[in-house]
């Protein structure tokens, strides 16, 4: 196989692995993997707390509450959605 074919094969394998994996984590800002767990909730809450008051902070607080609620209900997909939304609000 040529180098180009190997790269295409590797990319296809990575894409398949990502597509097949459940959505229980996302890449957080700074490239860190974020999971729906107590440690992530605590870290995100600290980030939100440090935000200046305003609409983005209000949005992030609501999303964090929803993420916690979903985590308690063991709905990790919904939890990750709310964590992602909170993270996006912290970046505004």
Helix-and-strand structural type: mainly alpha
What multimeric state do the chains show? single chain
Spatial strand order of the main sheet? 1-2
Give the % helix: 55-70%
Average pLDDT level: 78
Strand content: 5-15%
Run of helices and strands: HEEHHH
Number of strands: 2
Distance between the termini: 46 Å
How many helix segments?
A: 4
Number of domains: 1
Q: Largest sheet, described in full?
A: 2 strands, antiparallel
Overall shape? globular
Short recap of the structure:
This protein is 68% helix and 7% strand. The chain has helices at residues 3-20, 38-49, 55-72, 76-90; strands at residues 25-27, 33-35.
SSE blueprint:
Blueprint: H1 3-20, E1 25-27, E2 33-35, H2 38-49, H3 55-72, H4 76-90
Antiparallel strand pairs: 1-2
Helix pairs in contact: 2-3, 2-4, 3-4
Would you give an account of this structure?
- With 92 residues, the protein is mostly helical.
- The radius of gyration is 17 Å and the shape is globular.
- The protein has four helices and two strands, in the order αββααα.
- Strand 1 and strand 2 (33-35) form a beta hairpin.
- Helix 2 (38-49) packs antiparallel against helix 3 (55-72).
- Strands 1-2 form a two-stranded antiparallel ribbon.
- The protein has one domain.
- Residues 16-27 have low confidence and may be disordered.
- The chain starts with a helix and ends with a helix.
- The longest helix has 18 residues, at 3-20.
- The protein has helices at residues 3-20, 38-49, 55-72, 76-90, and strands at residues 25-27, 33-35.
């Amino acid at each position: 196989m040529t180098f180009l074919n190997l790269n295409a094969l590797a990319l296809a394998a990575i894409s398949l692995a990502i597509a097949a994996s459940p959505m229980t984590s996302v890449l957080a800002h700074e490239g860190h993997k974020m999971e729906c767990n107590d440690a992530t909730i605590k870290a995100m809450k600290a980030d939100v707390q440090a935000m200046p008051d305003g609409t983005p902070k209000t949005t992030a607080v609501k999303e964090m509450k929803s993420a916690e609620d979903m985590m308690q209900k063991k709905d990790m997909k919904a939890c990750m959605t709310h964590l992602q939304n909170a993270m996006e609000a912290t970046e505004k």
